[in-house]
TrEMBL record:
Keywords tagged on the record: Amino-acid biosynthesis, Cytoplasm, NADP, Oxidoreductase, Proline biosynthesis
The species this protein was found in: Halorhodospira neutriphila
Family: Belongs to the pyrroline-5-carboxylate reductase family.
HAMAP family documented for this protein: P5C_reductase (MF_01925)
Record's keyword annotation contains Cytoplasm: yes
NCBIfam families per record: proC
Reaction equation(s) it catalyzes: L-proline + NAD(+) = (S)-1-pyrroline-5-carboxylate + NADH + 2 H(+); L-proline + NADP(+) = (S)-1-pyrroline-5-carboxylate + NADPH + 2 H(+)
Function per UniProt: Catalyzes the reduction of 1-pyrroline-5-carboxylate (PCA) to L-proline.
Protein name: Pyrroline-5-carboxylate reductase
């Protein structure tokens, strides 16, 4: 992406840290990134780890910005949006909200009728440029702003534009929250290894290498995950026995219900925080 654009982050928490870290790792100049964050410790961490400019003043972060990433909690987005609306209009910057649930129409209402707004759902592996982000833009977003938003998120992983905003709840449930499901699986498998007699370090290493190997294999293979799973499963062997236990526990059903609960919560947040 062009390294000329000035990027402001409003909120310097977990997700901002992942995006900033990913951008810096991609070679984006630190002096072109400003993060506004009220917590002094978080500001200091961002400054010392990534070398970006930090401030406690949202207005200051916006000065000269071409893109402003709203990286505060969904419940804080309205306050921040209304606060920055005048400066955003003057800067002519595109606002990129990553808040779960918060809808384009509400963002537009809070930021002003002329505001160019992109709603995005990234995930934390952006930190190591392995993120997955879905995006959708309002009609005010220019072609240049469209490509700025895309290149910003593409610097930290894969991007996918949506044409129907309703899909954002599903995206939030699958890739937004998704890393947590895989981390939980890793925690559980590591623990099982320890229970079976491995030392923790060995159990963790084997778990993480296996997770990485399986994910890379699924990405690079032309076969479906189902086919790859079948190849691990020798008839009458160990995997078959293990998968039987997971089927009895209805793991697939639990995952389906978990994703539905996350999507439902995203929708609920949109209803609770929005005005329609
Ligand atoms: N954590 C994740 O994996 C993902 C989070 N998101 C979204 O990103 C947003 C941020 O989430 P997290 O980073 O996890 O939360 P977080 O709580 O770690 O970060 C939010 C930050 O905003 C700061 N803040 C609070 N009020 C502020 C204000 N008025 N002005 C400027 N900064 C302010 C807080 O001090 C905090 O550091 C949420 O809307 C969430 O839905 C989206 C995708 C993934
Ligand atoms: O848990 C959350 O609400 C945020 C949105 C997606 C991932 N984390």
């Amino acid at each position: 992406m062009s390294t000329e654009s000035q990027i402001a982050f409003i909120g310097g928490g977990n997700m901002a840290r992942s995006l900033v870290g990913g951008l810096i790792a991609d070679g984006y100049p630190a002096q072109r990134i400003t993060v506004s964050e009220p917590e002094p410790e978080r500001r200091e961490q961002l400054r010392s780890r990534f070398g970006v400019a930090v401030t406690a003043d949202n207005g200051e972060a916006l000065e000269g910005a071409d893109a402003v990433v709203l990286a505060v909690k969904p419940q804080t987005v309205r306050t921040v949006a209304e606060e920055i609306a005048p400066a955003l209009g003057q800067a002519g910057a595109v606002a990129i909200s990553i808040a779960a649930g918060v809808r384009l129409a509400d963002l537009q209402r809070w930021l002003g009728p002329q505001a160019a707004v992109v709603r995005a759902m990234p995930n934390t592996p952006s930190l190591i440029q392995s993120g997955a982000t879905a995006l959708i833009a309002n009609a005010q977003v220019s072609a240049a702003q469209h490509s700025l938003a895309e290149s910003l998120l593409r610097a930290v992983g894969q991007t996918q534009w949506l044409t129907d905003e309703a899909q954002m709840d599903a995206v939030t449930a699958i890739s937004g929250s998704g890393p947590a499901y895989f981390f939980l699986l890793m925690e559980a498998l590591e623990e099982a290894g320890v229970e079976l007699g491995l030392d923790r370090e060995t159990a963790r290493l084997l778990t993480l290498e296996t997770a990485t190997g399986a994910a890379r294999m699924a990405l690079e293979s032309e076969d479906t995950p189902a086919r790859l799973r079948e190849r691990v499963t020798s008839p009458g062997g160990t995997t078959e026995r293990a998968l039987g236990v997971l089927d009895d526990a209805d793991l697939r059903g639990a995952i389906q219900r978990a994703a539905e609960a996350a999507a439902h919560r995203a929708h609920e947040l949109g209803n609770l925080l929005g005005e329609q």
